[in-house]
Amino acid sequence: MSQQQPEMNMSRTPLAPKPMLPPAQNNPLTPKRLLRVQQQELIVINSDSECDSECEGETNYGDQSVYIVDMDVEKENVPEQSPKVVDEDLIITFSQRANVLPHARYDCPVHPFQPTEVKKVPIHKNFLTCEQCYCYICDKPALQCAMWTVTEVCHCNSHKNNDYWRGLRDVKLLGFLRYFDITLCEMDTRFREAEVMLGSFTVELAKEYSFFMRSSVVYTHNYTPVYECVWTFLNKADGQEDKAAAVMRLGAAMRFMAHTQPAGPSISHCPKASATTAKVLLIERVIAAVQQQMVLADFDHVFSGKLNCFYQVKIPLPSPLMWRLKMRYWNDPLLVSVLRGQNVSGVQGKGAKKDTLYEELPVILLRVQYLQKHYRYRELYRYLRVVLCAGVSSAELTRFQEVTDFIPLYMCWTAEFAEAISQFSTSSRRCPTLRLTPFFFRLYLHILETGTAPVLDAELPTQATLATAKWEKIIGAEPQLHTRLVVLSLRVMKIQKAIYSDSSCWEALLSMVNTPRDTPVPLEKPSALYLQDARMMVRHELNKGLHMDNICVPAALVAMYPRQGLLLMMTEALAMRITNSLLVPAIPVVNTFKDNEWAFQWLCDSLMSYSPDAYLSFMKGLLQELQSASIPTAAVLHDATNAVCACGKICKSNKGLRTHQRSSGCKDGDVSGTAQTSAANASSQWLLPHPLSYYYPSLSVNINMTH
């Protein structure tokens, strides 16, 4: 008790009569005070202060010790006792015999026990018991032990200091769990329940297997009942706690893997009917479940080591299946060094001690799932960059590549945008650009532009889950400059033709450079001299060749007009794309230019300079898209001397137009004349000079931009 608490609450309970003590003046042990503060306990305050004997009525609590003595006895049955001085520091004021608690027979305080290794007959008086004696072997009251005095196995002689009795106790209490080297200290309710279920399963399985093995000339051996018995037990194991479930699965595997197929007729068309094929199905399920537990349940290395020793020694597995269960623990030195970024090669040691990070595809997928679930994205992409898949089939290797293609996505979640971008330019076999789809191209473009990313759930990401995922801000991420994104996009398009041909990818790119998110206003039209010089610069840069590293944004292009320069470079690249093949659908791409009409004029001029036929095909396809969308007065061409069919055909006169329609079967009517757009759609029309007006001065086009 400290000096800050000098008062004791001794008035809560009426004081009981004080125990008999010598007077203070005659007590050689003074200063001591014995205070009763409750009827059920004694508090002895022992002080070494010299002033205690001098100050009557006062108590010094400076260096005192408090002793609480339980008094849970019936006071009337306890005779009063005189104090007994043991030594100069201890005085006994009260004592009674302790209650006898449950104990093993060899610890009985009532009946002496004679240790012995004899198990045939009771020795001395070892068979005598008190009410609290327990059997060491059965772990239950001795009076309930059926083997207490049975000849050859006298449990009354058992004790903990003999190997035989300890082994017999382990067999009795641990049962099947002794094969896993599980100790009694580790035994809990879940393990006991698992052991009971394993015991019942063993009996039932033995009956089914015995019926399957019966020999008869006319009997057809059918393993299906045995298979269903094991399958039902494995279903029960799925509902248990992780450690208990692992013990039940491997225990069942130990039993059924010892089965053999007897000679005689069998059902060949059913894999479950043969012990040989049915065991493969069952062990595949067991291995898959144990693999999942070893990774996701994160067992401690001690328990994992016990499982490892069990299936290597007790289960007769073929070498390929045995290798599948030899997984690295999470505390494996090589795996830990890779996750921490200390090892970037996945190789450790040299010569005979060389260790390479090889893992089965199911294990790789489970590790990815575990790390992703716990948001450990940095460790995840470090692991995927170096791990090697031990699979040999093409399907496994393809699946492994699909997983490694998400390395840039995990890098983005750690705000390492520069590292993510570099992954698309690497020349390694794991470069995701070779397998990049238009969907993921748009996904990465949006992530790098906005600094946000889709939230990943516990499952492996797919296009379906990412398309509906919620987007969140990446902590510490800075959106990338458009210059860098344009260069990245052009390099990817040089490699991946699917992205180069996809209209939605061009729409995403042109939307980014036409209307930047930070300043969503139309861009100012550059000077004519700049437009002339810019055309030569961007054509020279885009025509360098197919080597992706050769593409860059000229400094002179973005020196005076940085945003306009990027827009012109992408517009020129689009013109080259349309020249090579028709762009479908074209309306969404054209609609990105609605705020920058001068850029669309640039596109039309570039198309006419490359190929007038490509330009006419582009316009024809655009008009057909508008008509198929049922847009009224989608395109209106005015021409005093020429006539243009809805299919895009330019005729010299209306007569020539009608001749063309009869021969080609066009029935949409001509789009020449004085047809005007309705007033309802007039406000949504985007009117641009048609580039053909350079060659046909009276020709213009009016395109609806609302769709």
Task: Give structural attributes.
707 residues; two-stranded antiparallel sheet; disordered C terminus; 17 strands; 3-stranded antiparallel beta sheet; 25 helices; mainly alpha; 5 domains
Overall pLDDT: 78
Quaternary state, please? Answer: single chain
**What's the shape?**
elongated
Main β-sheet description: 3 strands, antiparallel
Backbone CA Rg: 44 Å
State the helicity in percent bands.
40-55%
Number of helices: 25
Q: Please tally the β strands and state the result.
A: 17
**How large a portion of the residues is in β-strands, by DSSP E?**
5-15%
Stretches with pLDDT under 50, minimum 5 residues: 1-76, 631-642, 668-707
* Class based on secondary structure composition and strand pairing: mainly alpha
CA(first)-CA(last) distance:
85 Å
Summed up, the domain count is 5
- Strand order of the main beta sheet, please? 1-2-3
Summed up:
It is built from 25 helices and 17 strands. The protein is mainly alpha-helical and 707 residues long.
Write up what this structure looks like:
By secondary structure, the chain is mainly alpha-helical. It has five domains: 1-96, no CATH class; 103-161, no CATH class; 177-327; 328-480, no CATH class; 629-704, no CATH class. Helix content is 42%, strand content 8%. The strands form eight sheets. The protein has a three-stranded antiparallel β-sheet, with no helix packed on it. A hairpin with a 5-residue loop joins strand 14 (643-644) and strand 15. Helix 12 packs antiparallel against helix 13. Mean pLDDT is 78; it is low at 1-76, 631-642 and 668-707.
